[in-house]
Hints:
Layout: E1 5-10, H1 17-28, E2 36-41, H2 47-54, E3 60-63, H3 80-86, E4 90-93, H4 96-101, H5 106-118, E5 122-127, H6 131-135, H7 139-150, H8 156-159, E6 163-166, H9 180-197, H10 200-205, E7 207-211, H11 219-223, E8 230-233, H12 242-246
2-phosphoglycolic acid binds next to strand 8.
Amino acid sequence: MSRKKIIAGNWKMNLTPSEAKEFVTNLKSKINTDKCDVVLCVPAIDIPVVLDTVKGTNIEVGAQNMHFEENGAFTGEISARMLTDMGVKYVIIGHSERREYFGETDQTVNKKVLKALNNHIIPIICIGETLQQREEGITVDLVRLQTKIALKGVSREQAKNIVIAYEPIWAIGTGKTATSQQAEEVCKAIREVLGEIYNVDIASKIRIQYGGSVNASNASELFSMPNIDGGLVGGASLKPEFEQVINF
Length: 248
Ligand code: PGA
């Protein structure tokens, strides 16, 4: 059972198109994409320039969100077909910031996951607990539920391609990383629930990332855990240290 690691940068609302071009031009000359898949999840307006800049490399481009409807009167939104048409291969779905500030729920996450898969886009599905939920001891119950709802109606064949990002909310942008043991424990529980939903073989193929203050000094320890297949990296993906995270 060998899963190729996948490291995704989540730029959030940072870098203009010209800044993006400069950053990616520099990054691509310094990283080795043999041992892991690299995905840059960039603001929608940066997608064309980043796609152009990564041409000829193995770096893939992802979006940070999309709408679950096919098309229509949804001012400001972007559809799955628009992303596919551009050449986008991944989309982050249900990031905790989208859940907190933009009203996303487990149900809208599920609709988006289905829409992405039906358009051949790999969803990076974000789940994770708040500090209060961790202290109440319900982390595993919560991520099990989030996983089950997110994957309702996703077939076995489709499930093999998804990526799950376990991101404890208390570790995002705070500099407080989960210990590799804490992260492994939850990623293992997520793999177990995937085994219950599908089967052990399919669960062993699905990649589970850890996200939350991943940086150059903790990446290799986190990524060496048996159930952690890479990372979703926010702050550090905008800095030169992203090279070290990728070359972990
Ligand atoms: P961080 O963000 O690496 O800055 O903690 C991770 C994320 O939000 O995906």
